[in-house]
């Protein structure tokens, strides 16, 4: 797996607050939500690199239904 890069992102406080609320609604961190949105935008524009690693699985493992 490749090394993940850190990026400093400056955004308007109101935009950050909206992102935080949206991420919380979907049980994600702001960082994970921004990455998901960027990946979606790249895919929609046909610019997603083929060599990009999938998003890492986060959170608790799912329970198996018995």
Descriptive keywords:
Arc_rbn_hlx_hlx, Ribbon_hlx_hlx, 0% strand, 2 helices, 66 residues, Toxin-antitoxin system HicB family antitoxin, mainly alpha
Task: Compile the SSE list and pairings.
Blueprint: H1 13-25, H2 30-44
Offer a quick outline of the entry.
The protein is 42% helix and 0% strand. It is mainly α and 66 residues long. The chain is globular and about 45 Å long.
Question: What do these coordinates show?
Answer:
It is a single chain. The protein is mostly helical and 66 residues long. The chain has two helices and no strands. The protein has a domain at 13-44. Helices cover 42% and strands 0% of the residues. The longest helix is centred in the middle third of the chain and has 15 residues, at 30-44.
Cα-based radius of gyration, to the nearest Å:
14 Å
SSE string, helices as H and strands as E: HH
* Straight-line N-to-C gap: 33 Å
**Rough shape?**
globular
Q: Main β-sheet: number of strands, strand sense, barrel status?
A: none
What level of helicity do the residues show? 40-55%
Low-confidence segments, ≥5 residues, pLDDT <50? none
How many helices? The count is: 2
On the 0 to 100 scale, the average pLDDT is 89
Secondary structure class reads: mainly alpha
Task: Please count the beta strands (DSSP E, at least 2 residues each).
Answer: 0
Strand content: under 5%
Protein name: Toxin-antitoxin system HicB family antitoxin
Biased composition (Basic residues): 57-66
Region (Disordered): 45-66
InterPro entries: Arc_rbn_hlx_hlx (IPR013321), Ribbon_hlx_hlx (IPR010985)
């Amino acid at each position: 797996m490749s090394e993940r890069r850190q990026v400093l992102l400056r955004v308007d406080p109101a935009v950050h607050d909206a992102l935080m609320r949206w991420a919380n609604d979907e049980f994600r961190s702001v960082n994970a939500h921004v990455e998901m949105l960027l990946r979606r935008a790249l895919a929609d524009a046909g610019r997603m690199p083929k060599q990009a690693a999938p998003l890492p699985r986060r959170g608790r493992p799912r329970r198996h239904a018995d």
